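I am still getting used to backbone structure tokens and would like to learn alongside you. Label the sequence line and the structure token line clearly, so we can match residues to local backbone shapes. Go ahead whenever you are ready, and we will take it from there:
>
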Amino acid sequence: MRAKILGVLAVSLLDHGTIDDFATIIAPRAINRPGRYAPAACRATGPDAVYATSMWLRRTFSDLTWTIRALSADESRVVVRADMTGRHTGDLVLHRDDGLPYRTLRASHLRFTVSRTYRFRIADARIIERSVDFGELGPEK
């Protein structure tokens, strides 16, 4: 049950959580795998990396919400399928594998909904690894 709560919190905090919020559920050395287009700060470890991912999303998209569609967990793993909904109001800066910017998608101001699968590993009642699956389409498609 605790693992499911951690998974839902980790997704839900992306639109409004503070660094302190993330520090309560993310282990100090947790691995963050935010996707290949994320800035270097998002590819670091611990709550700071997850918070950086959250802020990258918030700079690009407004009115962000996540709707949990499916949830599965055991003692050490959680999978959350969620729809992310918002409006593309800021430029989306895409980054190369080395974390440096290489392309900017200008704000379209359009509303969107995309499905994402989040995977978490849990140990000692905290998240020790976070990854997200963007599915078939990434931001360049």
The mean pLDDT is 92. The longest helix spans residues 46-60. Residues 59 and 90 are 6 Å apart (CA to CA).
